[in-house]
Amino acid sequence: MKNRIYLSLMLMLPLFVTVASAQKAASDNIKPQWMHKLPKETNSTFRYKSITCIGTSIDAARKNCLAELISSSGLSRGVVVTSDYKSKEKLSQVWINGKLEERVDYDAETKNMAKGKEGNLFVENIDEYWTRDNTGTYHLTKLYAMSELDTAPLFDNVDRTTKYGARGLWRSAIVPGWGQFHKGSNLKGGLILGGTVALIGGIIFTENQRADYVNKIMKTHDVNNKRAYATKRDHFATGRNICIGAVAALYVYNLVDAVVAPGARRIVVRERPNGTGYAFLPAITADGAPVMTASITF
User: Fold this and answer.
1) First-to-last CA distance in the chain?
2) For residues 140 and 114, is the Cβ–Cβ distance under 8 A?
3) pLDDT digits (tens, 9 = 90+) for 156-196
4) Average confidence (pLDDT) over 192-218
5) How far is the C-alpha of 109 from the C-alpha of 87, rounded, in Å?
6) Boundaries of every domain in the chain
7) Phi, psi at residue 133, to the nearest 5°?
């Protein structure tokens, strides 16, 4: 018996290793909100800038993005950046499993030179999002806050969050699924909106059919027909009630999901200590009932 258990564990080990070694295809399931619209600066001493680069590793892509940021900043400040690219190609033949195969090795080198007046560049790393294609290449988009002047800027005090609170709640309260669309969960929002429309259509259809059979009962004097019409009337009434219950449950789920479920990561500018602000947060009472609490800062 022990041998069988040991054998089963050995057979399952490669599966565990495969799952553990599997690499993510993207850093997040949903693209951050700032990739569609950059945050708004609170002052003119800096600006937000997004840069997209590729690399054979995530660290290489990050270095490329930083180099691109410096290069673009230098050009805007009157600094000329030149690149000298050199590559070498080496062809070799290798016997693999009895077959002669050719291999091509590339050796590339890039040198960047900058000329112009010196200046200070203040940069703050805000956020990033990357994807990895089938070739193993990383496609990275970085969000930076960079100074507009040579003096130290007054950067925003920002937070990164996937919560939307009241932003998603009031939208979903008006139109089911709207809050999910706002959070970037387009598939979920489409299912909620489509399901709501379909269930409302089911309510209208079943209620019309029920009313039609009520009219037929009133217009006939045949007992058998009345009995058959009454049965169908009751069936459509049951279908209507099921649709009403389903749309009510879907609406409640839509509200809870709009508040609790994470969405696309967004950048939130926190209020300064001498400022005022508010926030809506989900909470649970002592009785276990979900409620919304308001936090106000003076």
Assistant:
1) 69
2) no
3) 888 888 888 888 899 999 999 999 999 989 999 999 999 99
4) 94
5) 6
6) 23-161, 166-263
7) -85, -175
Q: At 148, which amino acid appears?
A: E
Q: Which pTM does this prediction carry? A: 0.61
For residue 282, give both structure tokens.
């989900």
In sequence order, what are the residues at sequence separation of 6 or more whose Cβ sits closer than 8 angstroms to the Cβ of residue 192?
172, 176, 177, 180, 250, 253, 254, 257
Instruction: Name the strand (E) or helix (H) holding 6.
Output: helix 2-21
Count the residues in the chain. Answer: 298
Per-residue tokens: 278: 């508010």
Those residues with Cβ within 8 angstroms of residue 160's Cβ, 6 or more apart along the chain or in another chain = 126, 127, 265, 266, 267, 268
Could you give the angle at the alpha carbon of 216 between the alpha carbons of 210 and 218, nearest 5°?
Answer: 110
Confidence at residue 281, expressed as pLDDT on a 0 to 100 scale: 43
Which pLDDT band holds residue 277 (cuts at 50, 70, 90)? very low
Report pLDDT for 52. 93
Q: Which of 51, 42, 30 is CA-nearest to residue 158? A: 42
Residue 184: left (phi > 0), alpha (psi -120 to 50), or beta? left
Instruction: Answer for the pair 135, 29: CB distance below 8 angstroms, yes or no.
Output: no
